[in-house]
Amino acid sequence: MPHVRPATLSRYLLQGQLISRGCLQTRPRVQASSITTPHVQLAQYLHTETSESPSNGRASVGVPFRKQLKDEAKKQKALGKKKKKKNVNNQVVDGWELTVGIEIHAQLNTAKKLFSGATTSFNDSPNTHVAYFDLATPGSQPLFQKETLLPALRAALALNCEVQPISRFDRKHYFHWDQPSGYQITQYYEPFARDGRIQLQSRDGIAAEDGESVSIGIKQIQMEQDTAKTLAQPGDVHWIDFNRVGMPLIEIITHPEIHYPATAAAFVRKVQNLLNAVDACVSGMEAGGLRADVNVSVRRTDDPSNPLGQRTEIKNLSSFKAVEDAIIAERDRQIAVLEAGGVIAGETRGWSIGSTETRHLRGKEGEVDYRYMPDPDIAPLLIAPDLVTHLRDTMGELPDDVVDALIRDFGLSSKDAMSLVSLDGGMRVEYFWNVVARLQSQLGANAPQEHKPCFQLAANWILHEFGRLTAERSDESALDLGFSQEGECIRVPAQHLADLIHHLYNRRITAKVAKELLWAIFRGRVPGEYHTVLDAIEKEGLWFEELSSDEYAALADDAVRGQEDILRQFLDAKVFPQGKLMFLVGRMVRLGQEERIDPKNAEAVMRDRIQSVYVPALKD
Amino acid sequence: MPPLSRRQHMGSMSARYVRCIQLRAAFGLTATPSRAAHTPIRWYATTGGYTDRQDNNEISNIRLAVKDNIAAKGFQTTCASNILAGTEIPFAATIVTQLRNHGMEVVGKAGMDEFGMGTHSTTSAFESVHNAHPLEKYSAGGSSGGSAVAVKEGRADIALGTDTGGSVRMPAAYTGTVGFKPSYGMLSRWGVVPYANSLDTVGFLARTVQPIREVIIGSNLYKEHDSRDPTSLPDTVRSRCTIEREGYTSSGQRLETLEGLTFGLPLEYNIEELDSRIRQGWLQALNAIQTLGGRVVPVSLPSTRNALSAYYVIAPAEAASNLAKYDGIRYGKRDTNGTSDAQDGVLYARTRGSGFGNEVKRRILLGSYTLSSEAIDNYFIQAQKVRQLVRRDFDRIFKLDNPLLDEQHFDLSEMEESIGIETKLGPAQVDFLVCPTAPTTPPLLEHVRNQTPLDLYMNDVFTVPASLAGLPAISIPMDLSIDPASEEQKLLHFGGLQLIGQYWDDARILSVAERLSGHVAKASAGKL
User: Fold this and answer.
1) Which site in A212, A220, A430, B217 is 20 to 30 Å from B292, CA atoms measured?
2) Of A485, A508, A540, which residue constitutes the final position of a domain?
């Protein structure tokens, strides 16, 4: 499959929210805009075939994607294609059962390659991190790099696998220019981890048909080598970058226990989150650090004793949406073939982003006999139980436990809790904990019980208001927020946000002022011009000094002057004219000192004045 | 090549064994080995001097020939294959660096069978090696034939070879030199182009045992672990093995007597194909051992009959895998004739088609077949089981335990009936096995060319078992009887006598071989 630019991929993602921590240093900064680009528009666009490109597509980065979408739209128009059914309504085909097994390849977060001392790298100059063994230089030998085992073991533990005390490495033979030795070293006969299981819940995005939760079994996890990267050139020319060859991967193989396309996508997303949480992997699907192959088969539901149908394999899926789309397309293709009286051939198929059908890659006759052979140079891998125990004890909290805690302790919605945990590779939730700690020191030990809404407010701002910083009206180039592993944020330090939230929660400043202050922090004016948030409020006189009841009443009187026609409508109304009320409140805000008005209080005063003063006056 | 049927493959390769041994009086004859000026080693122009050479060592000015599958800076390393023509490996093999540090000087690369695959050094892509004067018409043995002839002709004092299934010992036997294959894991393979990694060892050839013992034991080469070779024994294991063995500390002294040592005469090695003169020479050598105070007992190694078949499954399988890397893209020769065959094919089919010789292709096909999903259970897996049985046979026979394994128990009821029981404790146990290295004297090259591959593979029947078990083994020249009426017998007056020892018993094997040399070959005795 041709390499797809990470930016293109991330925009294509279902929600486009998952950003890995590894990207912070290596990705061009401008790509960060994709974090918060309103993807709803893009998604809608995909389904409605408008020919206009989304207005928010930003310069250079956006262009290839826009072009891709345009081409796609043109193609679909030319085909006279009907409007595509939404995936959420397309999880089941009556009379048929779908069965899916998944293989996920993930790049391990290690400093060295699997069998050589060459360092791992991502976007370094081609062919700068290559050892003799990586090039299959005659006379060179593999040297297992023990350190690569640690992230692999953390991954196995996060996926609840049983780590095998003895495992071995085998050679898988096939000829391709990206595989210099003519074989890949993998663990075919005796993988290092087996028999795992992960629990997916409805909040993970599984199909509604799976109910509240579903458990997916993992057959095995094996360590193996990555291949070299091919850089296609014009004409029939390929350049090879051996930096990637020999980098350590894990392959995670599930049992065929998934029956709905959305659940398959949720599984892959969940695995990515788990691997990220235990620091096993460098980057996610959007950066090409994770790839999935799916095995798809269908059988009729009329007779439960039917064996599983013939399966086909779809290789190299590089986004969660592609996983779901490809499974739906392949399921529909297989059903169509069977309903027409045909037979499904065991074959390997491919999928391109945006297409509607899987395509044939190679059939059974084109299958390679991999001639697996134990590698005679590599000793068996012996993993001591105390190492496994140590890693298990020091692994930290898994995302599910964190999400549960956020829902339980702060009353966050499961959607917000999930977002908080998955954004920025877990760094955003670390930031949240940081802000919580600072708020707690201001509010007192019992804050979580007594001031729950304050923490909800903080979560809300960290999720939604932060989003605006990098997306909306960003007159300067949209920059990363700069979250760190320690839970700090370069652009909005936790202490400043905690101060801001604290004042807002206590209604010492208005939401409008708070938003202005957030921008001031983001742009560095705090602490640049003002030492602290408090400093800025005091110097600029931003404290919320609310009008007194009398002042509110006087302001209401001013606002209704000359509006008798409107007031009359309150007299006759069968249904209370809320809209009219808000119109009058709006006038209050415009006429009065905005920074001293709480719209809710203004509304209450106006409602009260209408009922007790203005309407009775009209009756007279 | 159509895959061999199981019967064809496994059946026809086991030799017909003759049970009874007739002890006959040995009669010896000596002849002085000639030193002809013919040069079978290929000399490459060096691209740089030996500035890193250290001459301050106790060994100095020793001329070293290096087999052409071992990387040496300043020399090309072609493995006698077209596909690597002109290739220089950008690093030096550890063994070459070690020997240079011990004061040796690389004087040339020695010819060989292509990638070590052959028994007569005739499968080279460049030229075939022949035996030293006056045996030019005869095979020099393979695959380290060039190394053997180099030392035989005095072009080098010592030569590096590689031994996968007998590739150092066979040439030694055919040229009347000494060839030593150390325990697997003792000498580093970094920089040695693999043929079959699990069997490959670096070996030495010389005219006598002494320089080999001097370099491995005397200069402590056996102690040197190489962190770049994952199969190089770690220091801790080396010291543990060494503590359990004799001969490493008293390296300077020669063994004066064989008293107290038991030598096993493996009955299964007395095959029908054994040349009668070789058989006589073998018996004569056994007499010499007894004269020197050694005890000789017949022993049985029942798995021997399957060892050759197992070897010719395992070695080609590993070779097919190892040779998959040669595609002409990153190094070596690329066949660019015609258009690219990348479309609907393999990018380098043509390169591999023209780059490899017939014997290499034959073994790649053989190996690819025995690893294929339909054949692996019947061939590769079976062969691995046989390999364990072969090792077990050896472990049972030797007095010394195998230091790489936990203590093993051999239940008498599990033993084959053919194994004779010596005492109520079981069969006799021995220090060394003594047998011929090759079943015949060197054949005429003309005959070699007409032989089938299976005939050729048969030559390795005595050398393969020690390779499968990773054991140290040495071939020393032994005198053969001569019919004065036969001109050919006057030329071919020597054979190879092989000693096999338990794992890491290299030091004792070398001293016993050195002691024995003068008594089984009078010619050698004169030189010592």
Assistant:
1) B217
2) A540
Domain identity same for A447 and A338: no
Instruction: For residue A61, give its domain range.
Output: 6-79
For B330, the closest of A135, A171, A376 (CB atoms) is A135
Instruction: Quickly tell me which residue has 């409008």 as its tokens.
Output: A512
Query: Predicted confidence band at B439 (pLDDT cuts at 50, 70, 90)?
Result: very high
Residue B41 pLDDT > 50, yes or no?
no
**Whole-number Cα distances in Å, B436 to B45, B467, B470, B493, B514:** 38, 15, 18, 14, 17
In a domain, residue A392? The reply is no
Residue A204 and residue A403 in contact, taking contact as beta carbons nearer than 8 Å: no
Top-level class of domain B28-256+303-392+438-528? alpha beta
ipTM, two decimals: 0.87
In a domain, A190, yes or no: yes
Dist CA A149 CA A396 (whole Å): 18
Q: Give yes or no: B144 in active site.
A: no
Pair A348, A437 in one domain:
no
Q: Are residues A529 and A414 in the same domain?
A: yes
Question: In terms of domains, do A558 and A606 share one?
Answer: yes
CB A170 within 8 A of CB A372: yes
Does the annotation count B143 as an active-site position? yes
Contact yes or no for A182 and B91 at CB 8 A: no
Per-residue pLDDT of B305-333, as tens digits, reads: 899 999 999 999 999 999 999 988 889 88
Please name the residue of chain A whose CA is at the shortest distance from the CA of residue B324.
Answer: A182
pLDDT of residue A14: 30
Counting the structural domains of chain A, the total is 4
Whether A127 contacts A231, CB under 8 Å: no
Residue B91 with chain A: CB contacts under 8 Å: 132, 137, 139-140
Please check the confidence at residue B128 and state whether its pLDDT lies above 90. no
Residues A512, A529 share a domain: yes
Name the CA dihedral angle for A67, A71, A73, A78, rounded to a multiple of 10 degrees: 160
Here the tokens at position A218 are 């993992």
Could you say which of B128, B139, B144, B167 is catalytic? B167
Kindly determine whether residue A173 and residue B231, on different chains, have CB atoms separated by under 8 Å: no
Q: Are residues A74 and A159 in the same domain?
A: no
Domain boundaries along the sequence of chain B = 28-256+303-392+438-528
Task: Report CA dihedral (A443, A447, A450, A452) to the nearest 10 degrees.
Answer: 110
Indicate yes or no: CB of B331 within 8 angstroms of CB of A379: no
Q: Is B19 on the interface with A (CB under 8 A)?
A: no
B229 touches chain A (CB under 8 A): yes
Separation between Cα atoms, residue B5 and residue B3, nearest integer Å: 6
Radius of gyration for the alpha carbons in chain B, expressed in angstroms and rounded? 22
- pLDDT averaged per 10 residues, chain A (length 620): 36 33 34 34 35 35 52 60 68 89 94 94 90 96 95 94 96 90 95 94 87 94 94 85 94 95 93 87 78 93 85 89 92 92 88 82 74 95 94 84 87 87 82 91 81 90 86 52 84 91 89 88 86 86 84 89 86 84 90 83 90 84
A155, containing H or E segment: helix A149-158
Q: Contact A15/A269 with Cβ under 8 angstroms?
A: no
User: What are the two backbone dihedrals, phi and then psi, of residue A291, each rounded to the nearest 5 degrees?
Assistant: -135, 145
Enumerate residues 69 to 128 of chain B having a beta carbon within 8 A of any beta carbon in chain A: 70-71, 77, 79, 84, 87, 89-91, 93
| Residue A562 touches partner B, C-beta closer than 8 Å | no
Question: Residue B16: what are its φ and ψ, rounded to 5°?
Answer: -85, 120
Q: Could you tell me if A302 and A225 lie in one domain?
A: yes
Is residue A62, in this structure, part of any structural domain at all?
Answer: yes
pTM: 0.77
Nearest chain A Cα distance for residue B76, angstroms: 12
The 3-state secondary structure of A494-511, one letter per residue: HHHHHHHHHHHHCCCCCH
